[in-house]
Specification:
Elements (H helix, E strand, L loop, with lengths): L1 H25 L14 E4 L2 E4 L4 E7 L2 E6 L4 H11 L7 E3 L2 E5 L5 H38 L5 H34 L2
Antiparallel strand pairs: 1-2, 3-4, 4-6, 5-6
Helix pairs in contact: 1-3, 1-4, 3-4
């Protein structure tokens, strides 16, 4: 039961960190990144679908994303979907290819993005701490039910705390890395 609890808690903490990595990848720096367009939805025969299901999304250069719809009539719809998204991008169609230049970030915008990154990190830390709390509550319940000894409970609580500390350090590293990435000009 104890090994299962530790394994489950560790797995959930890793999933929280992976979710943070995905969220941080969406915060754009000055460089182009195909993941920026992942949540843009395009109207396709009456249904909203992710852009990567109707077009090939590639990098043209360090500051330009290329989007090539698989069907010619979709060029206008894809261009409109990118323009209408909350990303503040201004795509330009050139034949069958849509060029999406990434505007350079201003100092003010960089600071705003750093605040967003810190909030994401704090949310991930709260999730990790909640997982620790849940694991400790399960241990207390097992102790009350007399399925584990006090020594086992204390030892496992310490191991869960080590997992928590390790996860928080990893989150801090990710945040510092993203902050440094955002401040590069």
């Amino acid at each position: 039961m104890i090994s299962e609890l530790k394994k489950t808690t560790e797995h959930k903490m890793q999933r929280s960190i992976e979710a943070l990595k995905l969220d941080l990848a969406k915060v754009r720096t000055g460089r182009a990144h195909v993941g920026v367009l992942d949540h843009v939805m395009v109207e396709y025969y009456g249904n909203p679908v992710p852009i990567n299901q109707v077009a090939n999304v590639t990098l043209i250069d360090a500051r330009t994303i290329g989007v090539q719809p698989w069907e010619k009539p979709m060029v206008g719809k894809v261009e409109k979907a990118i323009r209408d998204s909350d990303l503040g991008l201004n795509p330009a169609a050139q034949g069958e290819v849509i060029r999406v230049p990434m505007p350079p970030l201003t100092e003010e915008r960089r600071k705003e993005l750093i605040k967003v990154v810190k909030q994401e990190g704090e949310g991930a830390k709260v999730a990790i701490r909640n997982l620790r709390r849940d694991a400790n509550a399960s241990l207390k319940d097992a102790l009350k039910a007399k399925t584990i000894s006090e020594d086992e409970e204390r030892r496992t609580e310490e191991e869960v705390q080590k997992l928590t500390d390790k996860s928080i350090v990893e989150i801090d590293k990710l945040l510092a890395q993203k902050e440094q990435e955002l401040m590069q000009i």
